[in-house]
Amino acid sequence: MPLKLSLRPGERFVVNGAVVQNGDRRSALVLQNKASVLREKDIMQPEEANSPARRIYFPVMLMYLDEGSQSALYGEFAERLAEFMGAVRNPVILTECLNISAEVMAGEYYKALMRCRKLIVYEDERLGMADVDPGLSTRQPTG
User: Domain extents for the chain?
Assistant: First the structure.
């Protein structure tokens, strides 16, 4: 099934590891086959992996963008997920963690990333950062 991306002017995204930027007009892009695609708002820089939930998201994102790196990153992911699960008592969030693990093991990295976003929101709420933008990045848009 094709994937249609509606892009804002200047919006960046990654397709199979290549950074692509839209031109100066709104446009749509249709991908006809399977590809690893992340919008700019879903891309986390290494320095942004600065909390337990974000340290789970980061290796999953890298595995999604470069499936060849899976074996090198899986240990980091598993360690961070285990640490997070050891500190959390919320049964809904623990279930999300188990689902993330299952999806990563099945190679469903994008689905796992979307679940990781729930962990980040939960963590931000618990740390009193509920007013923070739910996007992953605190970077200001460029352009």
Answer: 3-42, 46-126
